[in-house]
Design a protein that fits this description.
The structure holds 2 protein chains of 2 kinds. Chain A has 13 helices and 13 strands. Chain A is α+β, with helices and mostly antiparallel strands. In chain B, the strands form 2 sheets. In chain B, strands 6-7-8-3-9 form a 5-stranded parallel β-sheet, with helices on both faces. In chain B, strands 2-1-4-5 form a 4-stranded antiparallel β-sheet, with helices on one face. The longest helix of chain B is centred in the C-terminal third of the chain and has 17 residues. The chains are: A alpha+beta, B alpha/beta.
Chain lengths: 396, 208
């Protein structure tokens, strides 16, 4: 027998009130934990994918769309730009590195990206099998693509026009010559091939025509790395002043994206905070309303030798047990929901989310939720502390 | 065992109790008699250290209660006094055994299940130790309340109207059990009552 078992016994005897308080707190904690996991992992993933890319250059349109399609391969590209413009950018003295990409096709929902070997090198992706492509119509699969499709080196596949995997299949087949090791970057979800392959496939559409000359060829985006900090001030303006090009800064556009999405996230956070406060109120009401029916029990405990402080501790202990149950359940629920969401997103081939990761901020959430529960018990506990034993017993 | 001199207590200026002099020897059994409102319960609460009297000196088991306060008074009460209340007030969500364990825990004495079994057995409710109070008859609850009062082997057992609302046979049994348990542990017994049926039970009586 101790305060904890005494508290637990009392709470067990009032299952409905206990369950209500625990569930309210658990829902609040779970909502915040889910947000922490999803937003935190998305931010980390987006930062990782954009690392080393200072500017995305593509056709005029929405700069955010350009960034989403060029770096994260989440949206449709804004259009194509002349190869000559891309080449000019790579020669620009303010540019340290330029990686042109040719987009437009997909295979089973995975985007086929025409790029040089430097694109895979940029993300530190190494081959786990086979070799890198050396000639047109050879392809290297990202780790997730290989795992999901079950394809190995030597397999062949036909790309489909468009990025959703629902367009017409091209006649020419790619041959898988290599599989990339998992790099935990966007490249895991892509099919890489040479830019020439993309050109060749699309020239096949215009059968009967002669292959276009380099001046007429196009790429979709160019990923740029600045040669110096000064370039950040001048290069975007210089590019945007050209009639056919647009530059988007990943840092700026990502911040803008999160500020837009952040309104919804803040609303959810506010809702979760309300749930936690409601749980605190529920703990308060449960303990306070029970004081009247428990006044003899508490007075008898005083006659048995309990100090006023012990009665105070008893009620605080009950609130702590309630809050602890709510927090533990909330953490499990939050991680469980993140895992379910992760499985669904994986099925949708979106950014992966895992419920198996723990974030340091969760300790704060747990601490605050426990604090709210315990603070809610202070007034009832103070009333228990002030129990007038003699008067109470004389009444009963 | 008990020494009271010039005791008076007032609630909000209204006198609730006056007792000039009263002495009780260790092991004695006393009845405190008087009509409702004469101060019987107040006297028991004074003896238990639950009420600090407005005037007078009170010594119980060698301790001057006016000199005890806070945690020392709580500890003294837990180890020296056992109280049986009219309404029993067993803790509803605890089993019979846990009600007695609670008394041991609050008295900070080591948890002793053998003593609990012995005490419950002596009161004829040993087989009910796992039951909740709500699963017991009124008589059984009365016995458990007595067991809870004596499980820490107090030197003084106080009972406040223990026979109220009981039939004649039960009233006699409860007083006999209290006397038997007090004698078994060498404790002094003080029973406050206005019940005429138990007046002849003890030789020592205090009329208020």
């Amino acid at each position: 027998m101790n305060l904890a078992t005494l508290s637990a016994s009392y709470l067990r005897a009032r299952p409905l009130n206990t369950a209500l308080s625990v569930i309210l707190l658990a829902l609040g904690v779970a909502t915040i934990v889910l947000l922490l996991l999803v937003v935190g992992q998305a931010e980390e993933r987006m930062q990782r994918d954009a690392r080393g890319i200072d500017l995305v250059v593509g056709a005029k349109g929405s700069p955010m769309q350009l960034m989403l399609s060029g770096i994260y391969h989440l949206d449709a590209p804004t259009g194509n730009i002349p190869l000559s413009s891309a080449a000019a950018l790579s020669r620009n003295r303010m540019v340290k590195r330029a990686i042109p990409l040719a987009l437009g096709d997909s295979w089973k929902g995975h985007r086929i990206v025409g790029a040089g070997k430097e694109y895979a090198e940029h993300y530190g992706a190494n081959l786990s099998a086979g070799r890198f492509y050396e000639k047109p119509m050879e392809a290297v699969l990202g780790a997730e693509v290989a795992a999901r499709t079950g394809s190995a080196v030597g397999a062949t596949f036909k790309g489909a026009h468009g990025l959703g995997g629902e367009g017409d299949e091209h006649e020419d087949a790619y041959t898988v010559v290599g599989i990339l090791a998992k790099s935990n970057s966007v490249i895991d979800r892509l099919v890489l091939t040479s830019i020439e392959s993309v050109w060749e496939i699309h020239e096949e559409h215009g059968a009967g025509h002669n292959p276009p000359k380099d001046e007429a060829r196009e790429v979709t985006v160019v990923l740029l790395q600045y040669a110096s900090p000064l370039a950040a001030a001048t290069l975007p303006r210089q590019i945007n002043s050209q009639s056919d090009l647009q530059a988007a800064s990943p840092a700026y556009e990502t911040a803008r994206l999160f500020s837009i999405v952040g309104v919804g996230i803040d609303a959810l956070r506010g809702f979760a905070a309300v749930l936690i406060l409601a749980a605190g109120l529920s703990v308060f009401i449960a303990l306070y309303s029970a004081l009247e029916e428990r006044r003899y029990e508490l007075a008898v405990m005083r006659t048995l030798g309990a100090s006023p402080g012990k009665l105070f501790g008893l009620l605080i202990g009950e609130a702590f047990v309630l809050s602890l149950l709510g927090v533990v359940l909330g953490l499990l629920l939050g991680h469980g929901l993140a895992s379910i969401l992760g499985a669904w997103l994986e099925h949708q081939q979106h950014y992966p989310v895992t419920g198996l990761e723990w974030r340091p901020e969760e300790l704060w959430v747990a601490g605050i939720a426990l604090g709210v529960g315990v603070v809610a018990a202070i007034v009832p506990a103070w009333r228990a502390y002030r129990t007038d034993v003699s008067r109470t017993l004389a009444r009963g | 065992m008990i020494s009271v001199r010039g005791l008076a207590h007032r609630y909000g200026g209204q006198e609730a109790l006056r007792l000039a002099d009263w002495r009780v020897a260790q092991g004695d059994r006393w009845l405190i008699l008087g009509p409702s409102g004469c101060g019987k319960t107040t006297l028991l609460h004074v003896l238990a250290g639950l009420v600090r009297p407005s005037e007078g000196q009170v010594e119980v088991a060698g301790e001057s209660l006016l000199r005890l306060e806070g945690a020392r008074l709580d500890r003294w009460r837990a180890t020296t006094v056992g109280i049986v209340l009219q309404a029993l007030h067993l803790v509803k969500h605890l089993s019979v055994r846990d009600n007695l364990r609670l008394a041991q825990y609050l008295a900070k004495t080591p948890q002793d299940d053998a003593r609990i079994d012995d005490t419950l057995g002596a009161l004829g409710v040993g087989a009910k130790s796992a039951r909740r109070p709500s699963e017991l008859s009124q008589g059984e609850q009365q016995r458990v309340a007595i067991a809870r009062a004596v499980v820490n082997r107090p030197k003084l057992v106080l009972a406040d109207e223990p026979t109220a609302n009981l039939d004649d046979a039960s009233a006699a049994t409860v007083v006999d059990l209290l006397a038997e348990q007090a004698a078994r542990h060498g404790a002094t017994l003080v029973v406050a009552t206005h019940d005429a049926r138990v007046k002849g039970k003890f030789r020592e009586r205090l009329e208020l």
